[in-house]
Design goal:
By secondary structure, the chain is α/β, with parallel strands linked by helices. The chain is built from 11 helices and 13 strands.
Length: 335
């Protein structure tokens, strides 16, 4: 994988570009993709954003989100665009399997693949150019760095700015996580100079749900949360029937895993959800417990040091038992 800087002089030549991200994109994935989309359009490129799956309703306010192609819903259309691509930007994921059913198609493409990501252990051999920097707060920060370092800060218009701001705000926990460095705040100052309303963006991301989601959270925290004080760990396990009962849609469980970390002494929280076709896991931690390593070792996953995800082909009950056993094996590190 050649360094990302090698594409800077190549940006002057207009190309057909596809921008994609991980399945079930969050604000950083969608924000970085659309931020890059608006930037490349100004340089004369013909960019198209393709999401491997559908996405949350609370992301649909982002400029040009209505033009994003859902690969699973419009596979034939998406494949036709991919077949014409000269560049493929891969944002906020570093292994092609994170694009779900789209991965096989991406592996076959012969165009230049460009990685921009901040997760650990990238599949570097799959990309022509790229940057993988776990020290960065978000992929949105890295897209901003690309724009600035390539000499195009003047191309940061309000559409670029609101997309990048949404992602960096979300991935830094509204700027409270350690990754919200001085460089992040300098970036935000540049973005804010375009004149957007940051309060409105926060409301669009975090105050934009239906009543059923709040009632679902209350029900789950009351009846599904287990606390293992001897291991300083909390677990929320949710069966498929509860998702159906409360009409939970893509994105509605966002943030739920963080609630148990507000309990004194809890150092790791897990959210394990039966998604019908597979069991999905989310892990969060405080301090020096590495949930990235935990997720990779036990649940075919990975991510960041204090925030990671995984999956399981077992039943919900079997996955929960595997989690409890894994916690016992790591109990000394959780003290």
């Amino acid at each position: 994988m050649r360094p990302i800087e090698d594409i800077y002089p190549l940006l002057a030549k207009p190309r057909k570009v596809v921008i994609t991200m991980h399945q079930k994109p969050d604000a950083d994935a969608m924000g970085s993709a659309l931020g890059l989309f608006h930037f490349l359009k100004q340089l004369g490129h013909t960019p198209t954003v393709i999401s491997p799956t559908n996405w949350a309703d609370w992301l649909k306010w982002m400029p040009a989100c209505s033009g994003v192609i859902d690969y699973e819903f419009s596979t034939e259309k998406a494949n036709a665009v991919l077949d014409q691509a000269e560049w493929l930007f891969c944002l906020d994921f570093n292994v092609l399997s994170r694009t779900r059913h789209m991965a096989q198609k991406l592996r076959k493409l012969t165009c230049e693949k460009i990685l921009i990501d901040h997760h650990q252990q990238p599949e570097s051999e799959s990309f022509t150019y790229g940057i993988s920097n776990t020290g960065k707060s978000s992929t949105c920060e890295m897209v901003y760095d690309l724009i600035a370092a390539s000499g195009h800060t003047g191309k940061i218009n309000q559409d670029v700015a609101v997309c990048l701001y949404a992602g960096v705000m979300s991935d830094t926990g509204s700027f409270r996580f350690p990754a919200a460095s001085a460089a992040v705040h300098r970036m935000v100052a540049v973005l804010k100079d375009t004149g957007f309303n940051h309060t409105k963006i926060h409301e669009d991301l975090f105050d934009n749900f239906l009543e059923n989601r709040l009632r679902f959270f209350g029900y789950v925290l009351q009846t599904k949360m287990e606390i293992y004080y001897e291991h300083n760990t909390a677990l929320i396990a949710i069966p498929w029937k509860d998702l159906v009962r409360f009409e939970i849609k893509t994105g509605d469980t966002e943030g739920l895993v963080n609630f148990p970390l507000t309990i004194q002494g809890i150092r790791m929280a897990a959210l394990i959800i039966d998604r019908d076709e597979e069991v999905k896991c989310s892990f969060r931690s405080k301090g020096d417990f590495d949930v990235n390593t935990f997720a990779r070792k036990y649940f075919e996953g990975g991510g960041h040091f204090n925030a990671a995800g995984g999956r399981s082909s077992d039943t919900l009950e079997q996955t929960v038992q595997r989690f409890i056993q894994a916690v016992k094996e790591n109990s000394s590190q959780l003290q």
